[in-house]
User: Fold ATP/GTP-binding protein from uncultured Nocardioidaceae bacterium.
Amino acid sequence: MAGTDAQAAAAWHEPVGELLSRGVDERGAPVSVRRVRPGVAELSWTSSPPDGGAPASPGVRAAVEQAFAGGLVRVESRVPVTELDRVRTAARAGLRREGVLRGGADSHDTLLLARLAGDPAPDTRDGFMAMLNAGLPTKRVISHGLLRDPAGRVLLCELTYKPEWDLPGGVVEPGESPREGVRREVREEIGLDVESPRLVTVNWLPSWRSWDDACVFVFDLGVHDPTVTDRLTLQPTEIAAVHWCDVAEVARHAAAATARLLAYLAELPAGSPYLEGGADVTGP
Assistant:
């Protein structure tokens, strides 16, 4: 078998299921659609040839349109993350990235892509924007609240799921503003309603252990009487206790980035518009 034919054969993977259609694209390479569960089909095709021959996109898109014309509501495909030409072909056919199926030690990760019958066509403005949006990087957004007492101590939460103490707050939900996120998280975690949080800084955190990088919005939640902790209602699955901490106690119990952040804010209470890992990087 010639080299190009061998590569095409290796790239061909036909899913298991009822065969609904099988044809060829502009290159004469196979494109198949198989039903894998009610209303759902899986699409498979070979990679575009390395010699710059005709792309598979028109044939793949035609197979998707035919599947919807036959009453299916979802067409999906699994493509190795290393096969960028197949990822582009799927996007041109209107399939959006939905997630990554992790591979084992001997296999690559696989992208799960899909198009629904009600999705806008890929050659429309809305369809093109949706395709781009699905493939863009995402970044976690976290909102933390800074509560102080009159002595300048900071309220830290002793957490049930990690040894490091942290500021109250958490991950902002999709579609939720960071400001509303900190109000919700503080209410859920410690039972405190806060009004008009004031942004102190945005702190970018690099990847750490199993966490990807994130942007943390830090809000000033005001100065409170130390006895406010007697009236808090802690979320038992996340918060074991709360503590008023001075700089030394923060350094002893918090993660390094949190300790740097709070030490910086103790010296400059007005904050800085932007930090990285709790450090000011806006200077020369």
